[in-house]
Amino acid sequence: MMRLHLNENTAGCSPAVIDALRQLGRADAGVYPDYDAARQAVADLFGVPADYVLLTNGLDEGILAACGAAFRDRSSGVPETLGVAPAFDMYEGCTTALGGRMVTVPLDRDFAYQTDRLRAAITPATRIVFLANPHNPSGVRVPLETLKQTVRAIAPIPLFVDEAYADFSGDTLIDRAAFDAWPSLLVGRTFSKAYGIAGLRVGAVLGSPATLEPLRRIVPPYSLNGWATVALPIAIADRSYRDWYVGQAETSRALLTTACTRLGLKTWPSAANFLLVRVGPGLPRIVGMLAEKGIRVRDRSTEPGCEYCIRITAGLVEDTQRVIPALEEAVCDARK
Ligand SMILES: Cc1ncc(COP(=O)(O)O)c(C=O)c1O
Taking the chain, what is the end-to-end CA distance rounded to the nearest angstrom? Predict the structure, then answer.
């Protein structure tokens, strides 16, 4: 199957990562992992001191830890998280798993959100706000100024900005001065996407040391395994591989957008490694026909604002060139 449903790196990781993992042996499996080099590599990548970085078992664990830390205050009853709809489902999943309740505010038709609407939804039980930039599932970019306005507007409630796809957009809020000025700001990153190590599970949460402290108490000391801690600095060091893949995703996005426009399908301007496409009422047939050709895409049609929409990963250009004729055939067939 061509996996275009989870926004993975369709080329895999840098070959240098695999070479390094091949050097590992029995002794490496027998010891607890050493985090220092991995944490320093992330700190250097983002230009912050190492104590502004918390490594996590994928960004998923970072989201879970942020919820857990925020929910320690139960003084207003059931703790609430706040976010937008649609959004990445782990915000709600972690919230409910930890006994909380997620409140969401709708986005407008083009997936833009307004700080005021979010602010108005804050209650005494709101413990943390989750926003992704770029937004998932639309890929739409959130202006950094809007996010900064939100941090200021909702402080001291923590704002967790999920930058899972920021390697593709180039936008980030990570900045030591910003973390010092706004202790309520947390930024999440993943190495699953542009760096292609989703299978190794590496994410990071960045913020001021005091803000990260309660999260550190939740994430177990060896949450990253030894193979991941070895792979991470090597993946980061191979900048040309990462940049090459970001370029592939950008070209694929453009090719897919052009093809969809030609087919009369609505898309949104994505800054991530995927594209949301409104394929119309023929959606089940289109998804089925693509699957028959070995292409998996994600049906997002049940989410607010995503009626009749599928999400397609924009990865390797050669994959995209295979997907386009298959999509075209499926769309034309579904229109008959
Ligand atoms: C918005 C968003 N945040 C976080 C993640 C999770 O990333 P990780 O693989 O590091 O757990 C994903 C994965 O698809 C995502 O789309």
Answer: 26
